[in-house]
Amino acid sequence: MDFLGDGLRRAAQLLLSTDAEVYGIVFLTLKVALVATVIACGLGLPAGFLLAGSRFWGRRAALTVVNTALAFPTVVVGLLLYGLLSRRGPLGGLGWLYSWRAIVLGDVVLALPIAAALSAAAVQGVDPRIRRTAETLGAGAWRAAWAVAREARFALAAVITAAFGHVVAEIGSAMIVGGNVRGQTRTLTTAVALYTSQGDFGFALALGVILLALALLVNIALQVLQGRGHA
Amino acid sequence: MLELRSVRHRYEPNGRLVLDLDAFAVPPGALIGIVGHNGSGKSTLLRLLALLERPAEGEVRFEGKPVTPRDARALRRRVTLVEQRPVLFRGTVRDNLGYGLRIRGVSRADGNRILESAAERLGVQGLLGRSRHELSDGEVQRVAVARALAIMPDVLLLDEPVSSADRAAAAAMYRVLDEERRARGLAVCLASHQLEDAYRWADDIRAIAEGKLSPVTPENLFRVELPPRSAGAAKLARVGTIAIAVATEREGPAILGVPPTDIFVSRQPLASSARNVFSGKVTRLAHARAGTVHVTADVGVELVAVVTEEAVRELGLVPGSPVTFAFKASAVRVF
Asked: Choosing among A56, A131, A133, which should be mutated to test the B contact, i.e. which has the most B CBs within 10 A?
């Protein structure tokens, strides 16, 4: 219990101390998670709509691939991206290896199937008469999709929350392609791993508490937004 | 205006044929009643006419031209469907009535004027501020019809539009449809199992059975098992507690149709060539258009005959009267 109590005390002290390194880690974690969530959901939600609402050749196979990708090990994604982004890899010219962009790329690869699969499930849960009604009243494909999205708003908000939760807590890929470079690519998860391995349990726990608080804040913000749209 | 040609529709490549129509036309200003049992293909037919689905075979034509998928999107602004159990979007009734108008770029002021007029005609003006969760099923149906009328379509397709409405609300809705039709040539196609309504309000009744247009209305349609060839001239098909004599070569499962206009109605059995003579009691009289009456009688099964109002008066038919229905074996259609 002392261990936990110490951790909580140190977390509070760290947040109040205006420690530049801690704030840098928090800021980078938030930046990476938000950018990756926006990109993953920006691509994944329309893909989910397509998978759920359209009939095309290979749709079932695509759904199977997306559902399988949900269980993709993060370290394997990190390894594959490392191969692509390393100096001799096909994307080596980008110079992204050991940069925050590489962490974002890994997070997008991991969160995209979550956004696509869960939003497909959300759309499939909407009464099919909603789309038909919108269409028969003259709506084109986009407006009809928007009418469906409005009906599935709670489920779609949960998709965004799940994607954010996944990327903010991701470590395997971030460690491999980010490199855990102090002041550049050190996120809360990689920092927790580092300080734990160095035996500084209190500091690691303090960063873990901050990570949890961050996830909690984002969830509360999303719930407030959902509440505003209630009808 | 709107037409189906040589349409055969199935939902799976080798699945059951749900619709098989050589031709089905909806002319401008028509008020067509589509009658048929549940599962007969009425809703599928309406979805094809609404351009929401494409037929597996055949074509849909609008104003004489085949409708391509690209045309369908544009034409859906002129043809609209109110489904059997309509849904409202989230938001208020006012938001719902304005949905189609917003899509068409109608200004807020004009939109409010149009939707309030539609709401008033359907008697839902008092519901404009309510959300869908605060409405009864009948109110949802009226709002859905008002929402469809607000966009002033050329063709309005209605699937069981008054299944949850009381008589007064149903009559009011039919009156509004008739006014729209007279005022601007709106074509209406309504599917209903409430035959009295269909006969009372529609000009043109089309019966559909097993996905095909049937020459007889569905009151007298029976699913039967026809016995193998027998020595006699007519086969006997058991329907409920009676056996109907049928002149057919068919065997096995079939649908029998007895055209209501081919049934002779009398107070007592009369000597005649009719092989089918059944006595029972009148259960219902429904006055249809053009001076005709639909006489429903329980003669072991429920049968409907169409006679003139004059005949009803002369025979003194009222609910409960003894009655005899007679029809020839050769008058029975086999599908």
From this structure: A133
Of A205, A182, A185, whose CA–CA distance to A193 is shortest?
Answer: A205
Residue of B83, B85, B104 lying closest to A138 (CB–CB): B104
Q: Residue B195 — pLDDT band, cuts 50, 70, 90?
A: low
Are A150 and B73 within 8 A, CB to CB?
no
Enter the ipTM.
Answer: 0.72
Closest by CA to B82, choosing from B49, B110, B112, B115, is B49
State whether A130 and B147 contact (CB < 8 Å): no
Residues B251-282 have pLDDT tens digits of 888 878 888 889 999 999 999 999 999 999 99
- Selected residue of B12, B75, B78, B81 to mutate for chain A interface (largest A Cβ count, 10 A): B81
Asked if B100 and A138 come within 8 Å (Cβ–Cβ), the reply is: yes
What is the set of domains in chain A, with CATH numbers?
2-226 (1.10.3720.10)
Phi, psi dihedral angles at B308 (to 5 degrees): -80, 160
Residues in chain B within 8 Å Cβ distance of A139: 103
Q: Where is B256: in which H helix or E strand?
A: strand B252-257
- Per the DSSP assignment, residues forming a β-bridge with B214 are B207
Strand order in the sheet with B292-298: B264-266, B322-327, B276-287, B292-298, B302-308
Nearest-CA distance A226 → chain B (Å): 14
Q: How far apart are CA B321 and CA B310, in angstroms?
A: 16
Q: Where do the domains of chain B lie, and which CATH numbers do they carry? A: 2-214 (3.40.50.300), 218-334 (2.40.50.100)
Chain B residues bordering chain A (beta-carbon distance below 8 Å): 47, 50, 52, 73, 76-77, 79-81, 83, 85-87, 89-91, 99-100, 103-104, 131, 147-148, 151
A vs B, Cβ pairs < 8 A, gives 52
Please choose, from the candidates A8, A2, A52, the residue with its C-alpha nearest in 3D space to the C-alpha of residue A209. A8
* Cβ within 8 Å, pair B103-A143: yes
Q: How confident is the model at residue A145, as a pLDDT?
A: 93
Distance from CA of B128 to the nearest CA of A (A): 15
Q: Is the pLDDT of residue A4 over 70?
A: yes
Residue type, B88: L
* Predicted TM-score (pTM) above 0.80: no
Residue (of A41, A105, A114) closest to A78 by Cα position? A105
Contacts of A138 in chain B (CB under 8 A): 76-77, 80, 100, 103-104, 151
Q: Which residues of A touch B81 (CB under 8 A)?
A: 132, 136
A144 or A21, which is more confident: A144
Mean of all residue pLDDT scores within chain A? 89
> How would residue B66 be classed by pLDDT, with cut points 50, 70 and 90?
very high
The answer, yes or no, to whether residue B227 has pLDDT greater than 60, is yes
Name the band, by pLDDT with cuts 50, 70 and 90, for residue A34.
very high
